[in-house]
Hints:
There is one protein chain. The protein is built from 5 helices and 16 strands. It has about 300 residues and is mainly β. The chain has 2 domains: about 25-160, 3-Layer(aba) Sandwich (Protein Transport Mog1p, Chain A), CATH 3.40.1000; about 175-305, Lipocalin (Beta Barrel), CATH 2.40.128. The strands form 2 sheets. Strands 1, 2, 3, 4, 5, 6, 7 and 8 form an 8-stranded antiparallel β-sheet that branches. Strands 9-10-11-12-13-14-15-16 form an 8-stranded antiparallel β-sheet. A hairpin with a 3-residue loop joins strand 5 (about 85-90) and strand 6.
Amino acid sequence: QPTAPAAAGLAPGFAYTAPADFKKNGAWYIKSTVENRSSAEYTNCLIRFPNAIPAQGNMGDALRKLWETEVPAELKGRYGPLVYRRYTGQKLLTQFIFGSGKESGRRTDTVFTIFLVDCGRYWQPVVMAQTYEDTGDFLAGESMSASFSFNDSVMYAEPFLASFRCPGQERASLVDKAAMVGDYHFGSGASASWINTYTGSSFMTAVSYGGDLFLKADGTYSYRFASASGVVGAQTFGSENAKGRWSVEGDLLTLTPTSGTVTSVRQYRVAGVTQFADGNKSLVLLELRDPPIPQKVSDGSNVYTTKKAD
C-alpha cells in the first residue's frame, strides 16, 4: 500500500462512517477485491484523512499544495490543470484534483485523488489511491488491466464519500452563478482509415462536432451546435440552436429554451469551474447519468472553454 504520514485531527464537526467492506490498515481504509484467472488479480481502493487545514485562500491552491506533501515524491506535479467540484455527504462542497503515475516499487500506475471538503473555518483533506496488482508471472497487458480496474475501484469510494457529515455546512448551490458567466466553446473530432483486404480499396470515416454556449450575466443564454459524421465525401450533417434562460441549483445547470430548434429543457451536472491567470475559464458539464469521478470529468467532450481556438 502507498506510504502515508501519521493521521492527525479532523476538521471540527467533520465525521464519516467507513463502509463495512473497507478494512483499516494503519492510516488507510482499504477495499480490495480479487479475481482469480490464471493468477490472483487485486483491485484496490484506499482512503485516508490527513490533518484538517485552515480555510484560507482558495481551494485550488490548497489542493495543489497538498499534492506536494500527500502523494509519493515520484508523482510530484502529476495532476491536471483543472480543479473539479462535487457534492459529498449531505451537500458538502468538495473540490478535487487527481493524477497518476508509477510509485517506486510498483509495476502499474496508481491513481491519486485529493479531495478538500468545506467544513467552514477548516477544510478537510481526503486522499484516495487506486491500485491494481497481478500476482502472476505472465504480465503482458498488465497496464491495460490496471487501467480497466480504475473504472471499478473509483466507484468503491462512493458509499464512503456519501457518509461524510459536517453539520451546518450544507451548500444549497455547488457553484456561484456569477462564476459561470462566460462565452464557452466546445468540440471534438476523430477519423479512421479503412482498407478492404480483398480489393485493396480504401476510404476514410470521420466524426466531428462543435458549438458555443454563451451564459450571460442577465440569466439568458444562447447555444449553437453543428456536427458531421460518416464516410468522407458522403457525410451526414446536423445542427441545432437555442436561446432562453439558464439557472443553477445545487449542482445542476438548467437550460430552458424560449426559441430555436431545441424545444426541451436540458440539465447538466456542474463538475468544475476554473479561471486561469489569463482570464479564460473552463467549465465541466456532465450528463446527469454520469457520476463526478476522474474518468468522467477528464473526458474532453465534457469540457467547455472560453479560450478560442488558435
